[in-house]
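Lecture notes, structural biology module. Today: joint structure prediction for complexes of two components.
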Amino acid sequence: MNPSLKLALLVLVALEISFTHVWTVNVALIVVSLILMVWGHVAFKRLAMLTLIPAFFGGALVWSLTLRGTASSHFLLVIFTRMVAYVYMGGWFAQTTNPLTLTRSLEQNAKLPSKFAYGFLAAFNLMPKIQAEVATIKAAALMRGQVLHFWSPQLYFKVILAAMNWSDQLAAAMTSHGFVEDAPRTHATEIPLVTRDWIMLVGSLVLVQVGLFIGLP
Amino acid sequence: MKRWHIRDIILVTILAIFMGVIFWVITPLYSALTAVFAPMGLQPLANEILLGVWTMAGPLAGFVIRIPGAATLGELLGAVVEMFLGGIWGASTLISGVVQGFGSELGFMATRYRRYNWVTLTLSALTTTLVTFAWSLAREGYSAYHLGFLLLLFAVRFASVFVFGGILTKLITNLLDRAHVLKH
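The predicted structure, tokenised, for the full assembly:
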């Protein structure tokens, strides 16, 4: 399925089940996402994590609602299945979508301005360097006997200075390689958007609507 | 009104990734807090105490970059980073990211992107709390809680958002100001 439409489907369904109270639809979404993940060869360990963690947090939330609130058992069931459904649908998306393809698709199919698409990509490719920089900043402070925690302003100050430096350099590098904002571009890789993608999007949405509004529990 | 240029886009993304990397370390803390609070039925408190940390990318990006949409984009990209780093909440963090970022954005919008001081950050903390709390009422079923407990949750959430998105952000931007790297 086209990555942009996949994202749209996911966000729309997640939004809709946030405001509706039909646990059978939540369960159906969980089952469908599970089948799609098994189909997409998601590792068993990952699947176990995707099950245990929402079960733990969802269980704790439901327990808390029981003790401190006036929720009916139907409401609790809805909340619990909703948490699991979020995680399963999100897992399906994150595990079966390539970030590069998604960005390309957003630019070509969803008409995201190319300066955003390439700006995001440029920064995301710095990810390992960014992780190393945080470690370096902490180590450098340790050498002077300072321990930097996530609540230390110094840590963020140094991080922001590094971010400003790098964004200046990357932007200059892109400009010097001929990148012009808002100029028309050609694409090395075309991401197809075919009728089948639209049918899958509309079909899935219609199915969810039917499930939500025919009076299922 | 200032427009987005490639440098700002890269800057907000790098900032979001940095925040994502720093906040990665508090995930075990969140699990531990939940485990401690859960038996007494106080699980949401774990969430409320740490919420300010997760929503901090918004006010910080809004304060440093000063372009309409910076707070929302900073928070949303933080969520994207979390999703692809392997965050368990996957794509539902995208929606939370937009909700939280938009909450912070309202504070900057209220001062028309002209004033950058305590007032703006306090307003932003307040709007973040209000918007995210409304979202929790629907999404996490908070509407079923007794009023007293609900008020406690709200107060703790505001305190957390104010400490991280307000006080800590102000301390960071004070340092940046003294280093003359903020545009006025």
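Point to remember: Chain B has eight helices and no strands.
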